[in-house]
Amino acid sequence: MATLELSVQEEAVSPVRRGRRLGTLFWVAIGWMILVFAVAILAPVLPLPSPTDMDMLARRGPFSALHWLGTDGLGRDELARLAYGARISLVVGLCAPIIGVTIGGALGMLAGYFRGRFEALAVGSMDVLLAFPPLIFALAVIAFLGQSVLNLTCILGVLSIPAFMRVARAATLTLARREFVIAAQALGASHARILLRELLPNVALPLLAFFLLGVAVIILVEGALSFLGLGVPPPTASWGSMIGEGRESLDIAPRLAFIPAIAMFLTVLSFNLIGDTLRAITDPRQGAL
Amino acid sequence: MNAQALLSVEDVAVDLPTPRGNLRAVDHVDLTLAPGKTLGIVGESGCGKTMLSRAILQLMPKKAKLTGRVMFDGQDLTRLSSDALRKLRARSLAVVFQDPMTSLNPVLTIGTQLIETLQEHLDLDVASATKRAVELLAAVGIPAPEQRLTQYPHQLSGGMRQRVAIAIALSCEPKLLIADEPTTALDVTIQAQILDLLAREQRRRHMAMIIITHDLGVVAGRTDEVAVMYAGRVVERAPTPVLFKNMHMPYTEALLAAIPKLDTPPHTALPAISGRPPDPTRPLKGCSFAPRCRYADGRCESEKPRLEGAVTAAHQYACFHPIKLAAVAGA
Predict the structure, then answer these.
(1) pTM here?
(2) A259: which residues sit within 8 A by CB, 6+ positions away?
(3) Using the beta-carbon criterion (under 8 Å), do A188 and B102 form an inter-chain contact?
(4) A227, B128, B136, B256: which could join B167 in a potential S-S bond, CB 3.0 to 4.6 Å?
(5) Rounded to the nearest 5 degrees, what angle is found at the Cα of B81, between the Cα atoms of B80 and B85?
């Protein structure tokens, strides 16, 4: 009788526990991400005013039916700028880490697997890149190539390569001496096969977690660069440049800086939350090693 | 050497450079193995068993230096190009390791690992590879094999994992299977099952097998020949029944005495081999076992005994004072 009850209880408990493990916070984060992505993708079709049309008679306008979040210092619709700004922030925030994770991940895995001279060269060149002040590098390149979303993405992507390379190399180093790799070699697997089928699935997990962290960091860095006037060229809106422009009227209309800042904060927080949760639930090694 | 030998290891020595100096992990070892036969390599930790198996597979650390020849199926493995070596391994070599947790890829399902290996080796489509995978898992004694295909290694018990590792090793129909301490990480009842499984599959497939272990009990009933290693050298080598009936090397005797037996009363101290193996970076002039050997005398410390056959050519040992009597307990 007792055992019967126990088994029934267990069945009833397990799905509940699964739901609780993800947590409401995770679903709130997912909801916010969906909202931001939807707005960013659909910005041109949404019934929004143009983000660049100025209305000098309605500068720093308050919240109204016409301008839901008011207008900025040049009379541009704040909500529209927020929506279009999300596009820039997300494009840069996703594309730059993709550059980093692709090049850095590949370099790191090759370095960790083959070792030797290639590793020394790769690690050395990454150390040089790390030692170079990133802001100066960004300044120099933007001064040389000009301000554009593409240039910004490429610079941030290149700057993120060393970090991804290190994560990939560290993971590969420990895995490459494990017995399943030697077993695969003993069964005659080629280097390409070992790298792609044996090592990559293992290295991908820490890389993915680091990628989501990277997205959050890059969004912030893009914000900082735009704030300094090194980001996207005006009048294109990005969250960072909006905060930068809002700075001028912090005393009269602080919301102009705070609204994009809150949007950025929530987005970055969501990326981190989702990254953490996904890593925790998709890691098949959990508790086993 | 023997013309029909599948594997013959000829005068193989492996040197590993370490910060403390050159480490001779394997010291001029000669072994032969005929097709379908089983060789047991026995010795304590650090005696070079594993490095010898890696030398046979040509999977040594990059800095290791190997001298001598490893003849497999008429080819010298030490001279093959890496590509030819890879093809040869794919066709005819396989290895099973000690810890099945680290010898299976933790993030791929059992099915993925097994099916991909099969596809790689046998040129099958997914459906027939899956069918073969299920057959293989059933052959190594895994219940509900279809279900196991979707599971990850950590969802299986240690014995199950080792069975899966064996199934993967068998998937390419190897001519030689090297089992490197295949049962050390498992408990005793599972040990016997795994060893029986290896023996059964070996007979069925007529493959040669090398069992590497520190446990003489493991090799006792399941090998055709045993080589006892100490400090990188083979110190005694004989057909299994001969070795257990009539061992000559004091080290073999000491190893056997260190196995707990059922007929000794409880709480008796187990005879241990006193001292520790010599530092492999500082080779001794004489017999490596002399400092720990109760028969050792002055000659043992100044001169290295050669491995040679005294009674029969098949039974070789390296000792100046071989044990003469057949009265070794527990044999």
Answers:
(1) 0.75
(2) A69, A78, A82, A242
(3) no
(4) B136
(5) 65
pLDDT tens-digit profile of A161-210?
999 999 899 889 888 888 888 888 888 788 888 888 888 888 888 888 88
- Distance from the Cα of B71 to chain A's closest Cα (Å) equals 16
Least confident window among A13-22, A154-163, B157-166, B177-186: A13-22
Question: Using the beta-carbon criterion (under 8 Å), do B90 and A287 form an inter-chain contact?
Answer: no
* CB-CB neighbors (< 8 A) of A180 in chain B: 102-105
**CA nearest to A89, candidates A31, A40, A22, A49:** A40
Residue pLDDT, tens place only, B30-55: 888 888 889 999 988 878 888 888 88
The reported pLDDT for the residue numbered B2 is 47
CA atoms within 13 A on the CB side of A287: 5
Q: Which residue in B89, B105, B106 is closest to A187 by CB distance?
A: B89
B239-282 pLDDT, tens digit per residue, is 888 888 888 888 888 888 877 777 878 787 877 777 777 777 77
Closest chain A C-alpha to B283 CA, distance in angstroms: 28
> Looking at the partner chain, which of A187, A197, A288 has a beta carbon nearest the beta carbon of B172?
A187
Domain extents in chain A: 26-36+79-282
Question: Is the Cβ pair B107, A197 closer than 8 Å?
Answer: no
Which residues share a beta bridge with B245? none
Asked if B235 and B289 count as a contact pair (C-beta separation under 8 A), the reply is yes
**Tokens 């279009």 label which residue?**
A84
CB A63 within 8 Å of CB A69: yes
| Å between B54 CA and nearest CA of chain A | 9
The fold for domain A26-36+79-282 equals MetI-like fold (1.10.3720)
Selected for mutation to probe chain B from A180, A182, A193, A285 (highest B CB count within 10 Å) is A180
Query: What is the DSSP track for A72-130?
Result: -TTS-BHHHHHHHHHHHHHHHHHHHHHHHHHHHHHHHHHHHHH-HHHHHHHHHHHHHHH
Handedness of CA A14, A18, A20, A21 (dihedral sign): positive
The closest of A258, A226, A237, A233 to A156, measured between CA atoms, is A226
Residue A189 with chain B: CB contacts under 8 Å: 86, 90, 120
- Residues of A with Cβ-Cβ distance to B86 under 8 angstroms: 188-190
Q: How far is B10 from chain A (nearest CA, A)?
A: 21
Selected for mutation to probe chain A from B51, B63, B91, B105 (highest A CB count within 10 Å) is B105
Rounded CA gap, B156 and B145, in Å?
A: 12
Q: Is the pLDDT of residue B223 over 50?
A: yes
What is the rounded distance in angstroms from the CA atom of residue A1 to the CA atom of residue B215?
A: 47
Structure tokens at A248: 């001028």
Shortest Cα–Cα distance, B280 to chain A (Å): 23
Q: What pairing do the DSSP bridges indicate for beta strands B38-42 and B225-230?
A: parallel
Residue-range domain boundaries for chain B: 247-331
Burial A235-257 (b: 16+ CB within 10 A, else e): ebbbbbbbbbbbeebeeebebbb
Secondary structure, 3-state, B44-70: CCCCCHHHHHHHHHCCCCCCCEEEEEE
Question: Of B175, B215, B209, which Cα lies nearest the Cα of B192?
Answer: B215
